[in-house]
Amino acid sequence: MTNKEVGKGKEIPEKRGFRTPGLSSVQTTSLFRAVNPELFIKPNKPVMAFGLVAITLCVGYLGYMHAMKENDQQLYEAIDSEGEKYMRRKTSKWD
User: Fold this and answer.
1) What is the pLDDT of residues 38-59, one digit of tens each?
2) Is 59 exposed, middle or buried (0-12, 13-18, 19+ CB in 10 A)?
3) Which residues contact 76 (CB under 8 A, 6 or more apart)?
């Protein structure tokens, strides 16, 4: 058996102009790597999914709070001098 037959199927691919994505091959300072870790770390799909769900829930909760504030304007039905009914917001004596 020759060396070619022993390592058949598990050959190490030679670097023929292929580059790895990101800046891993570029010389940078430690400060640059600490400030910009997203350029050097492989993307983590579960963490991205968790972040997407968390941000979606936060935006949904803000929308819910806005809708509840609009619905809770303390409106009441008032009647003007001509007998017409209309909705009026409660006001404070301080306003």
Assistant:
1) 888 888 899 999 999 999 999 9
2) exposed
3) 87, 88, 90
